[in-house]
Amino acid sequence: MTTAAQVLGQFQAAGVETCFHDRHIAPQIYADLNGSNWGIKDYEARGGYQALRAILGKDGGEGLTQDQVIATVKESGLRGRGGAGFPTGLKWSFMPRQFPGQKYLVCNSDEGEPGTCKDRDILMYNPHIVIEGMIIAAYAMGISVGYNYIHGEIFQVYERFEAALEEARAAGYLGNGILGSGFSFQLHAHHGFGAYICGEETALLESLEGKKGQPRFKPPFPASFGLYGKPTTINNTETFAAVPWIIRNGGAAYLACGKPNNGGTKIFSVSGDVERPGNYEVPMGTPFAKLLELAGGVRTGRQLKAVIPGGSSSPVLPASIIMECTMDYDSIAKAGSMLGSGAVIVMDDSRCMVESLKRLSYFYMHESCGQCTPCREGTGWLWRLVDRIHRGEGRPADMEVLDSVASNIMGRTICALGDAAAMPVRAMIKHFRPEFEALIRNKTPQAAPSA
Ligand SMILES: Cc1cc2nc3c(=O)[nH]c(=O)nc-3n(C[C@H](O)[C@H](O)[C@H](O)COP(=O)(O)O)c2cc1C
Ligand code: SF4
After folding, report:
1. pTM of the model as a whole
2. What are phi and psi of 353, to 5 degrees?
């Protein structure tokens, strides 16, 4: 049996830069990967494309109808891994299957949320699992054309996915009359340019159409007015990657891997002040303390101070709260934050929360697409206020102004980037207000107190 250290050694010897590690509990997406077995033969040897064959009745079975596939995904409790956690089977059932014109399937591999680095690893080390998941989704919704929109700054991942597409086409899994059936599906890769906002689904569609990547007003939603104005279903890379396992093992088995309403496993990108940062695939509902332990614990000699549990837009939680949480949508929401994309940013007691918020606020100011005034202007106000406090030039009223600006952005914008900029500010004020006030009072950065 290959040990984690050996797998890591193989990567390092090959000069591969990755945050992939062989440290998982009950892996479904990351099972048996070693860094070099991404190709179609290896994928088939791991049971790959069997779900597709079963659906099409290619191995002696009767096959599955579109309704049966959607019902299985609904039963699995799979929730979208792109951030909002919307139930995938339900989303698929919104697709108007009888629509007479073109319908589209889109995979969102834009992955720009700070802290998130799972989709690029899935595409690099297991690209066929995404391709198979997309083919199954296309079959279930009666879609004949799909795109995978891949983040602009990871060109080697794009090339890997293109290579996998070629293999799948040559093997008859993509194209006209898949495996001799009456079902056809054309799948293409599309290279984005690296803007965070293009991960928002309607901005992504605009960008895919060749326009400036700016979000659209909703409704209408993509299910009725999506790519080129046609019905479109968009899911995250990790969402599609879960589908082959669900079809092979059944919806109930997937649900049982996690906890009610939070089926299956989830990949968490653990970064920050831990000994072994990386991607970890664990069952939904795994205690945060267990995930932290997998990642080697907090840096030696330090105490846990706070955690951003779901990517930079999810509200920060102090150590005392996160240590009581399990890693699933419901537990993290109950604690006042969001599981989001599963990017777990760990901060130890050396971290200044004012500086942390300053960096987050700068990101959102920089990434605002500028369409709506509260976001365009408000993200700049937030950054300037936090920067002023951090420089020791804060004024007594600044905390109220910060809270007021954040409150006035929330719910008043076209897309959720405005909320994503405001929520971290409000959470920092809620949990770490004394740190900000001390800096305003004393004019110099303070030693960060433990939470
Ligand atoms: C500013 C912003 C950025 C987003 N970035 C991503 C992203 O990089 N990847 C992603 O899958 N979803 C992202 N989303 C969420 C998508 O809009 C969409 O909800 C998701 O792709 C749906 O897939 P799912 O149901 O499988 O989660 C983003 C949303 C917002 C508001
Ligand atoms: S909220 Fe911000 S990013 Fe979203 S559409 Fe408005 S200005 Fe653009």
Report:
1. 0.93
2. -70, -25
